[in-house]
């Protein structure tokens, strides 16, 4: 269905509190194999939304990217210096990305608070992830980031597939198994995006997903025309069986075709994202609320248990409530400086955090255009720079 505007967020509920409305924004976590076109896709989605006056809130989580062809509100490179991480920890490129992501994850509460502040002003929050897909999908930090985001706002995983490179049944099957593993790992609403449809239509993939016999026929034909090029013959029977196993998985899988290059298929993409958002509300959020309720109950039980343990340790009489240690003695422990403010807890946030790396929301900086080149990408015509709101400003 073609529309002028991507569907705006429909009003669901805040996962953190039962019955509360979810924020307006839908988060799209964009993942895909290296070269599948993630960055081009992000650029296309970004410009599509800008054209419709729905500028998204953008996060770049790839510390190794050299050139980002769009402005990110939050960029991991502002917080973590990837080349320095490699040097200091004596790591190669992949280890460096993983460590940089781990370091950034320790600051993700700050990221989340920036995102939450804007979650009712924008319709979409976009996350670009590292090109080395497994660093995000199979690392602890990837899970922490995904879960934290999904607990704050409706979140959809967008899995980009390089369509022209998936026409061989064996490659298609590997890609689908990977998609399946990510789906089961995140348990989030999932959208498969067949990219590069300007080069290769994705119809063959939809047919293989709809009818496993068509996939099996294609497999046989490929074996006859290409021999052992895709692998030994015995793997065909495995793939035949896998196509049967995945049949159920395909039935619940949303798939669209787009060309990040030409912009074809963007309306269908956003329709599918909104459908996925509904699924989040229907299936993921109730699970999340149940989990929160269980955790709260456990926390209460733990608190009651530790209070009773503490009382036992202090030898408080369960019948009189009197401590064996006189109250005047206890006050000394609680207020060693004798300030008279026994037991008060101070918020040390401003006092000792000064050395910590801060996560910057670039769009809130007044000196945004004075930032060094490393932090200010996206040059426009005539030496102008593109601002976070999409408008062009003269370069300083
Ligand atoms: N024809 C065509 N080419 C595309 C499309 N999307 C991306 N490409 C090309 O595919 C190549 C890889 O695209 P990127 O956007 O860099 O892919 P990526 O997944 O970000 O790659 P990494 O940075 O390695 O993770 C580039 O040459 C793009 O121009 C598309 O829709 N159609």
**Order of strands across the widest beta sheet?**
3-2-4-1-5-6-7
Helix/strand-derived category reads alpha/beta
Label the overall shape: globular
Task: Please write the string of helix (H) and strand (E) elements.
Answer: EHEEHHHHEHHEHEHHHEHHHEE
Distance between the termini: 43 Å
Largest sheet composition? 7 strands, parallel
CATH class of the domain at 26-227 and 234-290: Alpha Beta
Return Rg in Å.
26 Å
Unreliable residue runs: 8-17, 342-355, 369-385
Describe the structure.
With 396 residues, this protein is an alpha/beta fold. It has helices at residues 38-51, 76-79, 82-89, 93-105, 108-118, 133-137, 140-152, 169-186, 203-210, 212-226, 234-251, 266-313, 327-334, 349-352; strands at 26-32, 57-60, 74-75, 124-128, 155-162, 190-195, 254-257, 384-386, 392-394. The strands form two sheets. A seven-stranded parallel beta sheet has the order 3-2-4-1-5-6-7, with helices on both faces. The chain has a two-stranded antiparallel sheet with strand order 8-9. The longest helix is centred in the C-terminal third of the chain and has 48 residues, at 266-313. It binds guanosine-5'-triphosphate (GTP). The site of guanosine-5'-triphosphate has 16 residues, from helix 1. Pfam families: ATP_bind_1. Residues 1-13 have a biased composition (Low complexity). Keywords: Cytoplasm, GTP-binding, Hydrolase, Nucleotide-binding, Phosphoprotein.
């Amino acid at each position: 269905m073609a529309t002028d505007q991507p569907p705006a967020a429909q009003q669901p509920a805040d996962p953190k509190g039962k019955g509360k409305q979810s924020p307006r924004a839908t988060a799209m976590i964009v993942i895909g194999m290296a070269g599948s076109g993630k960055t081009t896709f992000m650029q296309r989605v970004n410009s599509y939304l800008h054209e419709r006056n729905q500028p998204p809130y953008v996060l770049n989580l790839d510390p190794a990217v050299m050139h980002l062809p769009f402005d990110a509100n939050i960029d991991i490179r502002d917080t973590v210096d990837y080349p320095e991480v490699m040097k200091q920890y004596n790591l190669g490129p992949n280890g460096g990305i993983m460590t940089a992501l781990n370091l950034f994850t320790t600051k993700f509460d700050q990221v989340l608070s920036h995102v939450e502040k804007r979650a009712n002003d924008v319709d979409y929050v976009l996350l670009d992830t590292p090109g080395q897909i497994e660093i995000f999908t199979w690392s602890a930090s990837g899970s922490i980031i995904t879960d934290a985001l999904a607990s704050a706002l409706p979140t959809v995983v967008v899995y980009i597939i390089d369509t022209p490179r998936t026409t061989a049944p064996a490659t298609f099957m590997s890609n689908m198994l990977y998609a399946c593993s990510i789906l089961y790992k995140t348990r989030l609403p999932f959208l498969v995006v067949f990219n590069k449809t300007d080069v290769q239509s994705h119809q063959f993939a939809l047919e293989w997903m709809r009818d496993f016999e068509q996939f099996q026929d294609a497999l046989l034909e490929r074996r006859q025309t290409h021999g052992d090029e895709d692998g030994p013959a015995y793997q065909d029977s495995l793939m035949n069986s896998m196509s049967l196993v995945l049949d159920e998985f395909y039935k619940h899988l949303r798939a669209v075709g787009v060309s990040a290059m030409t912009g074809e298929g963007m309306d269908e993409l956003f329709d599918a994202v909104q459908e996925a958002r509904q699924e989040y509300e229907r299936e993921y959020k109730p699970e999340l609320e149940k989990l929160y309720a269980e955790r709260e109950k456990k926390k209460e039980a733990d608190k009651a248990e530790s209070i009773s343990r503490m009382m036992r340790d202090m030898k408080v009489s369960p019948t009189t409530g009197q401590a064996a240690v006189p109250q005047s003695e206890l006050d000394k422990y609680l207020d060693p400086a004798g300030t008279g403010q026994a037991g008060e807890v101070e918020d040390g946030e401003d006092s000792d955090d000064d050395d910590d790396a801060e996560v910057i929301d670039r769009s809130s900086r007044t000196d945004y255009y004075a930032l060094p080149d490393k932090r200010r990408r996206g040059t426009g015509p005539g030496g102008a720079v593109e601002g976070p709101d999409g408008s062009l400003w003269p370069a300083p």
